[in-house]
From TrEMBL:
Chain segments annotated as coiled-coil in the UniProt record: none
Swiss-Prot/TrEMBL GO biological process terms: carbohydrate catabolic process
Family matches, as InterPro entries: GH (IPR017853), GH_1_N_CS (IPR033132), Glyco_hydro_1 (IPR001360), Glyco_hydro_1_AS (IPR018120)
Lineage, broadest ranks: Bacteria, Pseudomonadati, Pseudomonadota, Gammaproteobacteria, Alteromonadales
Enzyme class, first EC level, given as a word: hydrolase
One function term, GO molecular function aspect: 6-phospho-beta-glucosidase activity
Biological source species: Moritella yayanosii
EC number: 3.2.1.86
Family classification: Belongs to the glycosyl hydrolase 1 family.
Keyword Hydrolase: yes
GO cellular component: cytosol
Official protein name in the record: Cryptic phospho-beta-glucosidase B
UniProt keywords, alphabetically: Glycosidase, Hydrolase
Residues forming the catalytic site: 360
């Protein structure tokens, strides 16, 4: 009873824009991620310096994936969550014909994973979209993007239908509320009216992808992906409890639509109270109603608190919240709350009664290479151990949990800040924030710890 299920999927999670590099290789177009800090474009716009930005090479997974997948296999992975770069398939987003070189590249990755019996869990859009769709259509503000995304989804479903049986639509789809450029291609200063209209289009695109996947790959499963931004009431004051309800509803709204197939009443009230009018066309509600996801996936890094007193909030990592005095913080100020994962798992399963999948969880920290060339990351081991113990407790509570893919199993570049020094991996990559380094891979202490956890189905975890 203390072991994880035999069919539990163990692995890690990466994203194309944070690992691949090769940002213009083999016909790839520019994505919104290429325009974020420290990409080659931002340098060209600001100066005449032609030195490639750190994200343009990232960790060179594009050329090194066989080596990296071999290391994942050595740890015992049975699943790797990764994303397809939309711009490798449709460089500008609105082409009628796909880029064959991009399609062939992912064929190579999926074939390499198959050699090692590692199942791919593929995200269709992970914090990036073609820049062409932003410049020519205004991003997800335009309904035309629904058709472009549908064409993209159809293309990859048909191409990889025999190689990929687990899919996700949009990564952390609720983050569009906090980072509209990253999420829906809108200016960061966009108002709620514009953001929720774009989100409506994205939710429709997600629903269409779910329906397409079930039609093209009947034996596949497709889920959504949420940022699990769990908020506790700061006190037992009913006003704080209500504040927590409102904060949680902001992200649960996305899960409710993608699972229950309709806009919840609390969201309709929010629209009324804030003079937001989401324009819908005939058939939109039917499209949503017919496309319930097969499972709920989510990221979990930290919890927060909510208070009716706005003075209690402090700036966090994109999302602001009230600090919890009972929890310690990571080096980047994230509250470490393993029991919050168990609470969230029980909460989501109770709400949706669908299988759950933890597709991101990990600790970003500054790792040091000692004189012997070793990376002793006991702090990461402790963090992951404590969260996995709570995931196991949730399974014993009756939660149906499909798997766990840590973020990220190999050091990668931060999406919004282009940091390499904020490391998550079991595998150290010799690259630093200034772009220097050999890109050599080194196994950290946590590499061997995670291998033992997988081999023992969690039996080696310390309660």
């Amino acid at each position: 009873m203390n072991l994880f299920p035999r069919d539990f999927l163990w692995g890690g999670a990466i994203a194309a824009n944070q690992t691949e590099g090769a940002f213009q290789q083999d016909g790839k177009g520019l994505s919104t991620a290429d325009l974020l800090p420290h990409g080659i474009l931002s340098q060209h716009q600001e100066s005449t310096d032609k030195t490639p930005g750190i994200k343009d090479l990232a960790i060179d997974f594009y050329n090194r994936y066989p080596e990296d997948i071999q290391l994942f296999n050595e740890m015992g992975f049975t699943c790797l969550r990764l994303s397809i770069a939309w711009t490798r398939i449709f460089p500008h987003g609105d082409e009628s014909q796909p880029n064959e070189a991009g399609l062939a590249y992912y064929d190579g990755i999926f074939d390499e994973l198959a050699k090692h019996d590692i199942k791919p869990l593929v995200t269709l859009s992970h914090y990036e979209m073609p820049v062409g769709l932003v410049e020519n259509y205004g991003g997800w503000a335009d309904r035309k993007l629904i058709d472009f995304f549908e064409h993209y989804a159809t293309t990859v479903f048909e191409r990889y239908q025999h190689k990929v049986k687990l899919w996700l639509t949009f990564n952390e789809i609720n983050m569009s509320l906090h980072a509209p450029y990253t999420g829906v291609g809108l200016p960061e200063a966009a108002d709620e009216q514009a953001i929720y209209q774009a989100i409506h289009h994205q939710l429709l695109a997600s629903a269409k992808a779910v329906t397409l996947c079930k039609h093209i790959i009947p034996d596949a499963k497709i889920g959504n992906m949420l940022l699990g931004a769990l908020n506790y009431p700061f006190t037992c004051n009913p006003d704080d409890v209500m504040a927590a309800v409102h904060e949680n509803n902001k992200w649960l709204f996305f899960g409710d639509v993608q699972t229950r197939g309709k806009y919840p009443g609390y969201m309709l009230r929010y629209f009324r109270d804030n003079n937001i009018e989401v324009i819908m066309q005939e058939g939109d509600l039917e499209t949503l109603a017919q496309a319930s996801v097969d499972f709920i996936s989510f990221s979990y890094y930290a919890s927060g608190c909510a208070s009716a007193d706005p003075k209690q909030k402090e700036v966090g990592n994109i999302i602001d919240s009230v600090p919890n005095p009972y929890l310690e913080k990571s080096q980047w100020g994230w509250l470490i709350d393993p029991k919050g994962l168990r609470i969230l798992l029980n909460f989501l399963y109770d709400r949706y009664q669908k299988p759950l999948f933890i597709v991101e969880n990990g600790l970003g920290a500054r790792d040091e290479v000692n004189a012997d060339g070793e990376i002793i990351d006991d702090y990461r081991i402790q963090y992951l151990n404590d969260h996995l113990v709570q995931a196991r407790e949730a399974i014993l509570d009756g939660v149906e949990l499909m798997g766990f893919t840590s973020w990220g199993p190999i050091d990668l570049v931060a999406n919004s800040t282009a940091e390499m020094d904020k490391r998550y991996g079991f595998i150290y990559v010799d690259r630093r924030d200034d772009g220097s380094g050999t890109l050599a891979r080194t196994r950290k202490e946590s590499f061997f710890w995670y291998r033992d956890v997988i081999q023992t189905r969690g039996g080696s975890l310390s309660a």
